Amino acid sequence: MLRHLPVVEDARVLVDASSRDDAAVFQVSADRALVATVDFFTPIVDDAAAWGAIAAANALSDVYAMGATPLFALNLVAWPREGVPIALLGDVLRGAAEVSRRAGCLMLGGHSIDDPEPKFGMAVIGEVHPDRMLTNAGACAGDLLVLTKPLGTGILATALKRDALLEAGMAEAVASMTTLNDGAARAALEVGVSACTDVTGFGLLGHLGNILDASRVGAELWLDALPILPHARNLAARGIVPGGTSRNLEAAAPRTTWEGGIEESARILCADAQTSGGLLLVVPPEHHSGLIAALGRAATPAAATIGRITAGPTGTIAVNRERR
Ligand code: CO
Ligand code: CO
Ligand code: CO
Fold it and tell me: Which CATH number fits the domain that encloses residue 82?
Protein backbone atom coordinates (compact mmCIF):
# COMPACT_ATOMS: atom_id res chain seq x y z
CA MET A 1 0.00 0.00 0.00
CA LEU A 2 2.69 2.48 1.11
CA ARG A 3 4.54 2.45 -2.19
CA HIS A 4 1.40 3.74 -3.91
CA LEU A 5 1.43 6.92 -1.81
CA PRO A 6 2.46 10.13 -3.57
CA VAL A 7 5.73 11.65 -2.28
CA VAL A 8 5.24 14.76 -0.13
CA GLU A 9 7.92 17.46 0.06
CA ASP A 10 7.23 19.82 2.96
CA ALA A 11 9.67 20.99 5.64
CA ARG A 12 6.98 20.64 8.33
CA VAL A 13 6.81 16.87 7.73
CA LEU A 14 9.35 15.30 10.13
CA VAL A 15 8.31 11.68 9.57
CA ASP A 16 6.23 10.24 6.73
CA ALA A 17 5.61 6.77 5.38
CA SER A 18 8.99 6.58 3.59
CA SER A 19 10.88 5.41 6.71
CA ARG A 20 8.09 2.92 7.55
CA ASP A 21 7.85 4.49 10.96
CA ASP A 22 4.93 4.08 13.34
CA ALA A 23 3.20 7.40 12.83
CA ALA A 24 3.30 10.58 10.79
CA VAL A 25 4.92 13.55 12.54
CA PHE A 26 4.10 17.14 11.56
CA GLN A 27 5.89 20.11 13.14
CA VAL A 28 3.61 22.98 14.18
CA SER A 29 6.11 25.18 16.05
CA ALA A 30 9.78 25.16 17.11
CA ASP A 31 9.08 22.95 20.13
CA ARG A 32 5.92 21.07 19.12
CA ALA A 33 5.05 18.40 16.61
CA LEU A 34 1.79 16.54 16.09
CA VAL A 35 1.86 12.76 15.80
CA ALA A 36 -0.98 10.97 13.98
CA THR A 37 -1.70 7.30 13.49
CA VAL A 38 -4.64 5.03 12.68
CA ASP A 39 -5.23 1.30 13.29
CA PHE A 40 -8.28 -0.95 13.15
CA PHE A 41 -8.98 -4.67 12.78
CA THR A 42 -11.52 -7.50 13.07
CA PRO A 43 -12.25 -9.17 16.46
CA ILE A 44 -9.36 -11.25 17.81
CA VAL A 45 -11.01 -12.40 21.06
CA ASP A 46 -14.65 -13.30 21.86
CA ASP A 47 -15.00 -10.83 24.76
CA ALA A 48 -16.19 -7.56 23.20
CA ALA A 49 -14.81 -5.27 25.93
CA ALA A 50 -11.42 -7.01 25.77
CA TRP A 51 -11.35 -6.56 21.98
CA GLY A 52 -12.08 -2.84 22.38
CA ALA A 53 -9.35 -2.53 24.99
CA ILE A 54 -6.83 -4.37 22.79
CA ALA A 55 -7.70 -2.25 19.74
CA ALA A 56 -7.28 0.94 21.77
CA ALA A 57 -3.94 -0.11 23.30
CA ASN A 58 -2.78 -1.14 19.82
CA ALA A 59 -3.74 2.21 18.24
CA LEU A 60 -2.16 4.20 21.08
CA SER A 61 1.03 2.17 20.80
CA ASP A 62 2.15 3.89 17.59
CA VAL A 63 2.08 7.22 19.44
CA TYR A 64 4.20 5.81 22.27
CA ALA A 65 6.58 4.22 19.75
CA MET A 66 7.40 7.75 18.52
CA GLY A 67 8.16 8.89 22.09
CA ALA A 68 4.99 11.00 21.97
CA THR A 69 2.07 11.64 24.34
CA PRO A 70 -1.45 10.85 23.13
CA LEU A 71 -3.90 13.77 23.22
CA PHE A 72 -7.19 12.57 21.74
CA ALA A 73 -8.68 9.81 19.61
CA LEU A 74 -11.49 9.22 17.11
CA ASN A 75 -13.17 5.81 16.87
CA LEU A 76 -13.48 3.84 13.64
CA VAL A 77 -16.42 1.44 13.76
CA ALA A 78 -17.71 -1.06 11.22
CA TRP A 79 -20.75 -2.92 12.54
CA PRO A 80 -23.49 -5.06 10.95
CA ARG A 81 -26.98 -3.56 11.11
CA GLU A 82 -28.30 -7.06 11.83
CA GLY A 83 -27.03 -10.29 13.35
CA VAL A 84 -24.69 -8.91 16.01
CA PRO A 85 -26.35 -7.19 19.01
CA ILE A 86 -25.62 -3.46 19.11
CA ALA A 87 -25.14 -3.81 22.91
CA LEU A 88 -21.86 -5.58 22.13
CA LEU A 89 -20.65 -2.43 20.40
CA GLY A 90 -21.29 -0.63 23.68
CA ASP A 91 -18.97 -3.15 25.36
CA VAL A 92 -16.28 -2.61 22.69
CA LEU A 93 -16.42 1.15 23.21
CA ARG A 94 -16.40 0.74 26.99
CA GLY A 95 -13.22 -1.38 26.80
CA ALA A 96 -11.59 1.16 24.50
CA ALA A 97 -12.65 4.09 26.68
CA GLU A 98 -11.16 2.47 29.78
CA VAL A 99 -7.77 2.02 28.08
CA SER A 100 -7.90 5.54 26.59
CA ARG A 101 -8.66 6.94 30.04
CA ARG A 102 -5.59 5.13 31.42
CA ALA A 103 -3.57 6.74 28.61
CA GLY A 104 -4.93 10.20 29.42
CA CYS A 105 -6.26 10.23 25.86
CA LEU A 106 -9.67 11.84 25.24
CA MET A 107 -12.15 10.00 23.01
CA LEU A 108 -13.77 12.80 21.07
CA GLY A 109 -15.82 11.15 18.34
CA GLY A 110 -15.48 8.91 15.35
CA HIS A 111 -17.34 7.40 12.45
CA SER A 112 -19.29 4.19 11.94
CA ILE A 113 -20.45 2.30 8.87
CA ASP A 114 -22.64 -0.73 8.22
CA ASP A 115 -20.43 -3.75 7.50
CA PRO A 116 -21.20 -7.48 7.70
CA GLU A 117 -17.89 -8.04 9.56
CA PRO A 118 -17.29 -5.96 12.71
CA LYS A 119 -14.13 -3.88 12.77
CA PHE A 120 -12.90 -1.47 15.38
CA GLY A 121 -9.96 0.83 15.91
CA MET A 122 -8.92 4.40 16.52
CA ALA A 123 -7.15 7.31 14.91
CA VAL A 124 -4.94 8.85 17.60
CA ILE A 125 -3.40 12.32 17.70
CA GLY A 126 -0.44 12.93 19.99
CA GLU A 127 2.32 15.44 20.48
CA VAL A 128 6.08 15.31 20.89
CA HIS A 129 8.98 17.74 21.17
CA PRO A 130 10.78 17.38 17.82
CA ASP A 131 14.11 16.77 19.61
CA ARG A 132 12.65 14.01 21.83
CA MET A 133 11.10 11.98 19.02
CA LEU A 134 11.95 8.26 18.82
CA THR A 135 12.26 6.89 15.29
CA ASN A 136 13.46 3.88 13.29
CA ALA A 137 16.58 5.63 12.09
CA GLY A 138 19.14 5.93 14.92
CA ALA A 139 20.42 2.37 15.55
CA CYS A 140 24.24 1.94 15.70
CA ALA A 141 26.41 -1.19 15.55
CA GLY A 142 26.94 -2.53 19.08
CA ASP A 143 23.57 -1.29 20.40
CA LEU A 144 21.44 -3.90 22.18
CA LEU A 145 17.86 -4.89 21.33
CA VAL A 146 15.27 -4.98 24.11
CA LEU A 147 11.67 -6.21 23.69
CA THR A 148 8.97 -5.21 26.21
CA LYS A 149 6.19 -7.76 25.54
CA PRO A 150 6.22 -11.50 24.76
CA LEU A 151 5.62 -12.76 21.18
CA GLY A 152 2.90 -15.14 20.00
CA THR A 153 -0.40 -13.18 20.01
CA GLY A 154 -1.02 -13.93 16.32
CA ILE A 155 -0.66 -17.68 16.84
CA LEU A 156 -2.89 -17.63 19.93
CA ALA A 157 -5.63 -15.57 18.24
CA THR A 158 -5.61 -17.96 15.27
CA ALA A 159 -5.83 -20.96 17.62
CA LEU A 160 -8.84 -19.35 19.33
CA LYS A 161 -10.56 -18.84 15.96
CA ARG A 162 -9.93 -22.47 15.00
CA ASP A 163 -11.19 -23.74 18.39
CA ALA A 164 -7.72 -25.09 19.20
CA LEU A 165 -7.55 -22.96 22.34
CA LEU A 166 -10.10 -21.89 24.93
CA GLU A 167 -10.48 -18.18 25.66
CA ALA A 168 -9.05 -18.93 29.13
CA GLY A 169 -5.77 -19.90 27.44
CA MET A 170 -5.61 -16.35 26.10
CA ALA A 171 -5.54 -14.70 29.54
CA GLU A 172 -1.85 -13.86 29.53
CA ALA A 173 -1.98 -12.70 25.91
CA VAL A 174 -5.00 -10.46 26.63
CA ALA A 175 -3.25 -9.00 29.68
CA SER A 176 -0.22 -8.22 27.53
CA MET A 177 -2.24 -6.82 24.59
CA THR A 178 -4.29 -4.50 26.84
CA THR A 179 -1.15 -3.18 28.55
CA LEU A 180 -0.22 0.27 27.27
CA ASN A 181 3.30 0.85 25.97
CA ASP A 182 3.38 4.13 27.92
CA GLY A 183 5.65 2.80 30.68
CA ALA A 184 8.05 1.30 28.14
CA ALA A 185 8.18 4.59 26.23
CA ARG A 186 8.76 6.59 29.41
CA ALA A 187 11.62 4.26 30.35
CA ALA A 188 13.13 4.67 26.87
CA LEU A 189 12.92 8.47 27.01
CA GLU A 190 14.29 8.60 30.55
CA VAL A 191 17.34 6.45 29.75
CA GLY A 192 17.96 7.43 26.13
CA VAL A 193 17.60 4.94 23.27
CA SER A 194 18.87 5.22 19.70
CA ALA A 195 15.80 3.82 17.92
CA CYS A 196 12.35 2.48 18.73
CA THR A 197 9.35 0.86 17.08
CA ASP A 198 6.46 -1.30 18.24
CA VAL A 199 6.14 -4.90 17.11
CA THR A 200 2.77 -5.36 15.38
CA GLY A 201 1.50 -6.84 12.11
CA PHE A 202 4.86 -7.40 10.40
CA GLY A 203 6.23 -9.39 13.34
CA LEU A 204 9.60 -9.05 15.04
CA LEU A 205 11.59 -9.69 11.85
CA GLY A 206 9.59 -7.16 9.83
CA HIS A 207 9.65 -4.33 12.34
CA LEU A 208 13.31 -4.94 13.20
CA GLY A 209 13.95 -4.94 9.44
CA ASN A 210 12.40 -1.45 9.18
CA ILE A 211 14.80 -0.16 11.87
CA LEU A 212 17.77 -1.80 10.14
CA ASP A 213 16.89 -0.38 6.72
CA ALA A 214 16.26 3.12 8.10
CA SER A 215 19.47 3.02 10.22
CA ARG A 216 21.62 1.30 7.55
CA VAL A 217 22.82 -1.46 9.92
CA GLY A 218 22.24 -5.19 10.48
CA ALA A 219 21.33 -7.25 13.56
CA GLU A 220 21.69 -10.60 15.27
CA LEU A 221 18.88 -12.15 17.33
CA TRP A 222 19.31 -14.63 20.20
CA LEU A 223 16.52 -17.18 19.96
CA ASP A 224 16.71 -18.47 23.54
CA ALA A 225 16.28 -14.91 24.85
CA LEU A 226 12.96 -14.23 23.06
CA PRO A 227 10.03 -13.84 25.46
CA ILE A 228 7.21 -16.14 24.25
CA LEU A 229 3.60 -16.41 25.48
CA PRO A 230 2.52 -19.72 27.02
CA HIS A 231 1.05 -22.19 24.44
CA ALA A 232 2.39 -20.21 21.45
CA ARG A 233 5.35 -22.49 20.77
CA ASN A 234 3.26 -25.69 20.94
CA LEU A 235 0.50 -24.26 18.80
CA ALA A 236 3.02 -23.13 16.16
CA ALA A 237 4.58 -26.61 16.21
CA ARG A 238 1.08 -28.02 15.60
CA GLY A 239 0.84 -25.92 12.45
CA ILE A 240 -1.47 -23.21 13.80
CA VAL A 241 -0.06 -20.23 11.95
CA PRO A 242 -1.87 -17.03 10.90
CA GLY A 243 -1.76 -16.18 7.19
CA GLY A 244 -0.07 -12.86 8.00
CA THR A 245 2.67 -14.65 9.90
CA SER A 246 3.44 -16.96 6.96
CA ARG A 247 3.60 -13.93 4.65
CA ASN A 248 5.91 -12.16 7.14
CA LEU A 249 8.28 -15.12 7.23
CA GLU A 250 8.37 -15.23 3.45
CA ALA A 251 8.94 -11.46 3.22
CA ALA A 252 11.80 -11.65 5.74
CA ALA A 253 13.53 -14.57 3.99
CA PRO A 254 15.87 -12.47 1.79
CA ARG A 255 17.24 -10.56 4.82
CA THR A 256 17.36 -13.42 7.35
CA THR A 257 19.92 -16.19 7.93
CA TRP A 258 19.15 -18.95 10.43
CA GLU A 259 21.76 -20.83 12.43
CA GLY A 260 21.70 -24.55 11.59
CA GLY A 261 18.95 -26.68 13.12
CA ILE A 262 16.54 -23.90 14.05
CA GLU A 263 13.11 -25.50 13.79
CA GLU A 264 10.19 -24.06 11.81
CA SER A 265 8.09 -23.25 14.91
CA ALA A 266 10.86 -20.95 16.20
CA ARG A 267 11.07 -19.19 12.83
CA ILE A 268 7.30 -18.73 12.88
CA LEU A 269 7.48 -17.05 16.31
CA CYS A 270 10.09 -14.60 15.01
CA ALA A 271 7.71 -13.63 12.20
CA ASP A 272 4.41 -13.88 14.11
CA ALA A 273 2.06 -10.98 13.32
CA GLN A 274 1.48 -9.28 16.67
CA THR A 275 -1.48 -7.27 17.85
CA SER A 276 -0.63 -4.58 20.41
CA GLY A 277 2.91 -5.92 20.74
CA GLY A 278 5.68 -4.41 22.81
CA LEU A 279 8.24 -1.76 22.00
CA LEU A 280 11.44 -2.90 20.32
CA LEU A 281 14.07 -0.63 21.85
CA VAL A 282 17.58 -0.15 20.49
CA VAL A 283 19.81 0.93 23.35
CA PRO A 284 23.50 1.87 23.50
CA PRO A 285 25.37 -0.64 25.74
CA GLU A 286 26.15 2.03 28.36
CA HIS A 287 22.42 2.69 28.86
CA HIS A 288 21.36 -0.95 28.80
CA SER A 289 21.31 -1.74 32.51
CA GLY A 290 19.56 1.56 33.21
CA LEU A 291 16.90 0.70 30.65
CA ILE A 292 16.27 -2.78 32.08
CA ALA A 293 15.93 -1.26 35.56
CA ALA A 294 13.52 1.43 34.29
CA LEU A 295 11.41 -1.19 32.46
CA GLY A 296 11.31 -3.18 35.71
CA ARG A 297 9.98 -0.14 37.57
CA ALA A 298 7.38 0.31 34.79
CA ALA A 299 6.43 -3.39 35.17
CA THR A 300 6.36 -4.00 31.39
CA PRO A 301 5.13 -7.51 30.45
CA ALA A 302 8.72 -8.35 29.35
CA ALA A 303 12.12 -6.64 29.46
CA ALA A 304 14.16 -9.10 27.41
CA THR A 305 17.51 -8.41 25.76
CA ILE A 306 17.06 -10.30 22.51
CA GLY A 307 19.98 -9.35 20.28
CA ARG A 308 22.42 -6.77 19.04
CA ILE A 309 22.88 -4.34 16.17
CA THR A 310 25.71 -5.24 13.77
CA ALA A 311 27.58 -3.23 11.13
CA GLY A 312 25.58 -4.94 8.40
CA PRO A 313 25.15 -5.59 5.52
CA THR A 314 22.25 -3.13 5.79
CA GLY A 315 18.98 -4.78 6.66
CA THR A 316 20.31 -8.27 7.36
CA ILE A 317 19.26 -10.34 10.40
CA ALA A 318 21.29 -13.34 11.64
CA VAL A 319 19.23 -15.52 13.98
CA ASN A 320 21.41 -17.51 16.41
CA ARG A 321 20.30 -20.07 18.97
CA GLU A 322 21.86 -18.10 21.81
CA ARG A 323 24.04 -15.13 22.71
CA ARG A 324 27.71 -15.65 21.87
CO1 CO B 1 3.87 0.63 14.91
CO1 CO C 1 0.15 0.93 13.30
CO1 CO D 1 -18.38 10.76 9.59
Answer: 3.30.1330.10
231 φ/ψ angles, rounded to the nearest 5 degrees: 80, -25
Residue 236 three-state SS: helix
So what's the pLDDT on residue 17? 81
Mean pLDDT by 10 residues, the chain (324 residues): 74 88 94 97 95 98 97 97 92 98 97 96 98 94 98 96 90 96 98 97 97 97 97 95 97 97 96 98 98 98 98 97 92
Residues 104 and 170 in one domain: no
Same domain, residue pair 170 and 314: yes
Is residue 139 situated within a structural domain? no
pTM of the full structure: 0.95
Residues with CB under 5 A from ligand 2 (ion): 39, 62
Residues 6 or more apart whose CB falls under 8 angstroms from that of 53 comprise: 95, 96, 98, 99, 178
The residue length of the chain stands at: 324
- Number of continuous H segments (helices) and E segments (strands) in the chain: 10, 13
170 and 244 fall within a common domain: yes
| Dist. CA 251 → ligand 2 center (Å) | 18
Classify residue 120 by its DSSP letter.
E
Task: Calculate how far, in angstroms, residue 51's C-alpha sits from the geometric centre of ligand 2.
Answer: 16
Count of structural domains, the chain = 2
| CA 23 to ligand 3 center in whole angstroms | 22
Structural domain for 233, as ranges: 144-320
Please indicate, yes or no, whether residues 208 and 284 belong to a single structural domain of this protein.
yes
Return the ligand number nearest the Cα of 279: 1
